[in-house]
Amino acid sequence: MGWISSLPGWARWALYAAIGIFVLSLVQTLTGETTELTSVGTSQAMLRWGVPILLAGLGGLFSERAGVINIGLEGMMILGMWFGAWGAINYGGWVGLVVGVMGGVLGALIHAIATINFGVDHIISGVAINIIGPAGARYLSSEIFSGYDGGSITQSPRVPGVGKFDMPFLAGGDVFGWQSPDLLGTIGELEIFFLSDVANLTRGLMSQVAPSTMVAVALVPISWYVLWKTRFGLRLRICGEAPKQGEAQGINVYLYKYYGVLLSGALAGLGGAFIASPELGGIYLEGQVNNRGFIGLAALIFGNYRPAGILMGAMLFAYPFGLGLRDINETASHTLLLVTAVAMAAIALWATSKGRRLDMVVAAVMAGLCAAWYFLSDTVPDWWVNILPFVIVLLVLFFNAQRLRVPAADGEPYRRGE
Amino acid sequence: MTQGNDSPADGSPTINQPAIELSGITKTFPGVVANDDVSMTVAQGEIHAICGENGAGKSTLMKILYGMQSADEGTMRVFGDRVDFKSPTDAIDLGIGMVHQHFMLADQLTVLENVVLGAEPTKSGGRIDFEAAKAHLQEVSESYGLDVDPDDLVETLGVGERQRVEIIKVLYRGAKILILDEPTAVLVPQEVEELFRNMRELKADGATILFIDHKLEEVLEIADSITVLRHGKTVATLPNEGVTASDLAELMVGSELPSPEITESTVTDTVTLEVRNLTVGGGGDRPAVDDVSLKVHAGEIVGIAGVEGNGQSELVNAIVGTVSPSEGSVFLSGEDITRRNVRTRRESGIAYVPEDRHHEGLLLSAPLWENAALGHQTKPPYARGFFIDRAGAREHTETIRAGFDVRTPNIDVSAQTLSGGNQQKLILGRELTSNPKLLVAAHPTRGIDIGAQAAVWDEMRQARKDGLATLLISADLDELIGLSDTIVVMFRGGVVATLDPSDVTPRTLGAYMTGAAIESDDRTDDLKGTP
Ligand SMILES: Nc1ncnc2c1ncn2[C@@H]1O[C@H](COP(=O)(O)OP(=O)(O)OP(=O)(O)O)[C@@H](O)[C@H]1O
Ligand SMILES: [Mg+2]
């Protein structure tokens, strides 16, 4: 298996994704209970759910690579959601996103001043932001949204979006009024094992998507490029790995930590604004961020502090949510139990090959439990898909903790000249 | 930055202008005067050594010259111009580069990234031109014979290689004035020779070098002139002519050095540590430690000689329990401890002086008294039952401070405020006063001044007399030969020779360490293992 680790990150993740889809289509075909596991609709829902998680994860990436732990992402997203809604209602969808970014930056500024200038513990400051964010948003709503038609202290009127489009050629979008062929749709309808499933899931990422979603996904390679290929990125990363060493080579560590935290807030704010946009909620509603900031952090850890991994983590966590939305008769979630059992069995085999006995036992027991649950029931309660993302995070931490590479000086206080 | 020139000359560097002129530099930290009215002049193109006891203020002075710390008082001139540095950037701009006492490298970055940081060649859009950077790095490394692979992660490098990366980092920016803070402390003799060759080459190219060193023979070998600091003050600046090591020592500590006493053997029959057929790593790669067996008796010091990276660190880690061996076992007083965790091993009487004091020895931001308890936190005087005994711990820390001459204003300051040598003395004090059965000491006197070194050696001899078994790893061959009862040479993970220190010289030992003596010496096989 050495060749896998020699692949570049994106290729490795693409391979893992392909294996995952293969398992999904295999189980789906064999059980014949549902077709939702690999439908276009599920994939669309997953993407919409995953984008805020992705943006939060990328936000965490910039902050923690600069050495500042940011558990305040949640609060920053809430501010982003409020400001995004306000901006969009007053000035239109695109402006809303920009104003949302500024809302997130506002929260980040507090975090930056507290942690970088005053040396406040990063966790404490983050918790404070998570308290200030919702409180501030509620106050602003009572002052502003309450006065709007259809608004109240906990919600805003409808928020306009930025439109949707289909990708030409691949998903049948039109080019200057001409309707292009729908390549993936055609393959999807052929119902070829695995191939059609891949086509459906891919088509879901390309049909009826908002341009803002495209921007969010494009931020993945952009983040990678900025952090690993530019001078800015190298200087930012040294602040998370070895700030003293950076200082000794003439880097202004404070400045780059500021950049990291503010960019983090900007991305979280964008994620918040996205939640308020019609892609998800379509209004500002209190509590709508619903822990996505924390799930974003989980995606960051899952992705081992790298952008491609964060994307995969965000989509993996969003998949059960997306599926839950589509799953009217609960057969799909039921089938997902069996998929989980297969995945755990695979982990058990992997652990055996590595000689990790405890891991093997835990994975095997969980595989057994999931399989038993599957065969002894016809449906599952809907909390199952809702807790699955959190279960995945725990599993990743359990099975993969030794391989995680946290930036070496993440969370450490820094003072110049000490 | 440069604040113009208040001397009559036009400011352009001329040959007779000194490279550096410091006058009246004073720097105080809470409770300590690190530099007290220091003045010195360094001529262009010379190698200038700075000597002094631990805590004399050498590193502080160099950091001021590099813009990392600012002086409270005094003036600095570089090539005749008055300067006032706000940050290292200002110093770097004037061509000053510094290699720090404790390495300044980011472990998870590549050599190339570490080197270019702060001086990155860029293309449009802030993109780093890695090709150009690599070419320049290779040019520098070839012209000085400093061999490194730019794509290696720094964490995979040994100390010698790290040292080279540090020097390349400075040369990469075209530094004209190099500051090297104890560059030889972590090097084995062959590497020191190589470093000195590089330094002479740099000097021939017109560079000015300031360097700090505690080994006086090395200073006398390479330096053109020598400045001695004591208690933050300049005692003297001398040209390196007709000066002897004892002259220097007397200037440094103010009195003559105690000469080490001759001691007789105290080796007993009780085996304290036994390592049996120990192998670490392997499985595809060459094992880091390859089937090593050795015994250390109570009252015995066994020295391990070897060029860095031949398995010594891994052997030590397997004994203290931070790595688990793939084969073989470790016995302490006859008990098999191979499967025990680090804490139970420490509790059963293993004292440990790690090779890297910053990574494994100290919590840099914790106060001294907490650091003194580190590794012994479950036992009196540091603990009473389940609880930390604050008063007891503090009292014991004071004992260590007095007994090992740890220079500090009080025991509540954080460990990072101690000078490098004083950090080392704190660790030694902590380990030697813990009543151990076995002491595993990696480079115990690294970075310690000659006076304190003699004192540490005395402590170790005294402990040996009281029945302590010691496993000593050192790059300092004189220390190995002078202290050990038996010397074991490690090469490529295996024990290649077991020698009696009374009939080896540093030269012959060096030959064994590089593997040169093995082919020519067929007695080696008989000597393999322990007597
Ligand atoms: N950041 C700091 N805060 C407080 N005190 C400090 C700090 N840095 C150095 N000191 C104190 O200043 C004095 C001089 O320290 P310095 O590191 O210059 O010594 P040194 O001559 O380099 O010693 P060594 O040979 O042990 O490296 C010491 O007493 C040390 O405790
Ligand atoms: Mg020093």
Describe this structure in words.
- The complex is a heterodimer of chains A (418) and B (531).
- Chain A is mostly helical and 418 residues long.
- In chain A, 69% of the residues lie in helices and 1% in strands.
- Chain A has a two-stranded antiparallel ribbon with strand order 1-2.
- Chain B has three domains: 2-95 and 176-253, 3-Layer(aba) Sandwich (Rossmann fold); 110-175, no CATH class; 271-349 and 436-527, 3-Layer(aba) Sandwich (Rossmann fold), CATH 3.40.50.
- The model of chain B is unreliable at 1-12 and 521-531 (pLDDT under 50).
- Bound molecules: adenosine-5'-triphosphate and magnesium ion.
- The site of adenosine-5'-triphosphate has 21 residues of chain B, from β2, α1 and α14.
Report a brief summary of the structure.
Helices cover 69% and strands 1% of the residues of chain A.
Quote the CATH topology of the largest domain in chain B.
Rossmann fold
Count of individual beta strands of chain B: 22
Head-to-tail CA distance between termini of chain A: 45 Å
> What name does the CATH topology of one domain in chain A carry?
ABC transporter involved in vitamin B12 uptake, BtuC
Q: Which secondary-structure class do the elements of chain A indicate?
A: mainly alpha
- Percent helix of chain B: 25-40%
Question: What's the CATH H-level superfamily name of the largest domain in chain B?
Answer: P-loop containing nucleotide triphosphate hydrolases
Major beta sheet, strand line-up of chain A: 1-2
User: What's the shape of chain A?
Assistant: globular
CATH class of the largest domain in chain B: Alpha Beta
Q: Sheet bearing the most strands of chain A, described?
A: 2 strands, antiparallel
The greatest interface here is: A-B, 25 and 31 residues
> Total helix count of chain B?
19
Low-confidence stretches of chain B: 1-12, 521-531
CATH architecture of the largest domain in chain B: 3-Layer(aba) Sandwich
